Amino acid sequence: MLEITDVTKEYRPGVRANDRVSVRVAAGEVVGLLGPNGAGKTTLVRQVVGLTKPTSGAITIGGVDVVRHPEAARVACSWQPQMQVPIRGLTPRQAITLTAEIRGASKRQASERADELIADLSIEEWGEAFGWVLSGGVARLVAFAMAAAVPGKVVILDEPTNDVDPLRRRLLWKQVRDLADRGAAVLLVTHNVLEAERAVDHLALMDGGRVVAAGTPGSLKPGAAAGFRLEVLYEPNALPDAARLPAFVRDPVLAGRRLLADVADDDLETAIAWARTERTAGAVEEFSLGPSTLEDVYVRLIEQEQEVVA
What we know:
This protein has ten helices and 14 strands.
């Protein structure tokens, strides 16, 4: 449905927000665009919806070239931007209903869809409140509902869970899945690694304007998935020499005072005993040991990219 092929956005010579980015999102699929702030995610989205023109590369939606025909992107896409939607003079119910009508729903259909989304996101108590009294999290949920009211072929959600409380984040993720199940191609832009792992079918990890890894959450952590993750927070004056760490500490990454490393199943007891000894000696503030996650892969890839750039 959405094909982004070798897209580059160069603002001036040597300054690229996107560098040959390729991402594909099929109908019925949720694809996460994951990366730190400044990775180029929002710039890429602006090109998909026709607000910014790529320097080179191609973007098609359903086979239509939306670089040449940006008006087609605005029809085909439902977009929740990263910034808050300005609805100060409207109630959530009015904003959602109006958006649905603009996108072709009848008054009855729009009203019913607004009621449905307000209930599903558990924001009934704010349904008739004007936008200026809404908290950031509730306003974010209303913005999502506006994008989901009458979804396009492609639904783009840019950091949809910002400021949303944990309970309603779960409700929102159910609605994201529902959009895909109804046939939309969903592009989810986020830096929340743990939630992305649970919500998406595929991931594209961006850093420095490039896609540095892509695949299913499981395929991106084949080595880590078989072992465990050791995380150690060192005291400020006790940072270790990576070359002198014990042999069972595999592929260590140091980020500030934080050590992240892999530990094999057979070395769990040894790792726990070592970490306890380090803490007793006053070198370690705290430590944890648990199954490896996508966050571990994310941290490693970003660290590696930064080392290459440096």
